[in-house]
């Protein structure tokens, strides 16, 4: 049975995964970098015991990194869902390459109605599709006991999200600060990579 895995080991595995071939701007489909993904999973699975032998879902899974990490850490049942067919195709290839059992679903997150112990997600920031981050957040809180969610870090955004989470009947248990490393993805990107300050929220029921 799989279980706790060192963060550096996960980072090495993730660096071998295939990226999204054609990112879509309106979906804000940025590939989560290996270091950030391994950090999220280490917090969820090592600092807390929210992955091993748990039912885990990755909403907006992209190429499947967080779902694959959950499988490596011994989750009992894993689902990854994304509306982008290209992302799901690559996610399936990535899981197959590692010999992992992950259930991938192509479609809007609203197609999911099952309940889970834990949601792991790197949702759209809502920069191009206003309200997308809140849509993902509400869905996660509706279907899972514990949610780990990445959001752009600003004082205004923190206040907004904490108020939203409270209005959904949940509470922010803890916030972890990190930097995402985003590669040049779209034509308007001038640098080879961008560092984005984000918050990882651990959210639970009151």
Describe the structure in your own words.
By secondary structure, the protein is α/β, with parallel strands linked by helices. The protein has a single domain (about 5-205), classed as Rossmann fold. Helix content is about 35%, strand content about 30%. The protein is built from six helices and seven strands. The protein has helices at about 5-15, 35-45, 65-70, 85-95, 130-145, 155-165, and strands spanning about 55-60, 75-80, 105, 115-120, 145-150, 170-185, 195-205. It has a seven-stranded mixed β-sheet with strand order 3-2-1-4-5-7-6, with helices on both faces. α1 (about 5-15) runs antiparallel to α2. The protein is globular and about 40 Å long. The termini are far apart. The mean pLDDT is about 90.
């Amino acid at each position: 049975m799989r279980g706790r895995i060192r963060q550096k080991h996960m980072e090495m595995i993730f660096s071998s995964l295939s990226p999204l071939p054609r990112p879509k701007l309106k979906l804000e489909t940025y590939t989560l970098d290996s270091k950030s993904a391994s950090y999220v999973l280490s917090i969820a699975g090592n600092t807390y015991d929210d992955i091993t032998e748990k039912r885990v879902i990755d909403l907006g899974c992209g190429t499947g990194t967080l779902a694959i990490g959950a499988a490596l850490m011994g989750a009992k049942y894993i689902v990854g869902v994304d509306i982008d067919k290209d992302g799901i195709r690559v996610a399936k290839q990535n899981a197959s390459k590692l010999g992992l059992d992950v259930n991938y679903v192509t479609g809007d997150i609203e197609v999911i109605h099952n309940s889970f112990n834990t949601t792991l997600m790197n949702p759209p920031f809502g920069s191009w599709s206003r309200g997308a981050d809140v849509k993902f957040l509400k869905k996660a809180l509706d279907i899972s006991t514990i949610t780990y969610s990445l959001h752009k870090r600003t004082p205004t955004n923190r206040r907004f999200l904490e108020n939203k989470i409270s209005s959904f009947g949940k509470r922010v248990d803890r916030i972890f600060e990190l930097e995402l490393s985003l590669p040049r993805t779209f034509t308007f990107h001038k640098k080879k990579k961008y560092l984005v300050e984000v918050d990882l929220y651990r959210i639970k029921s009151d």
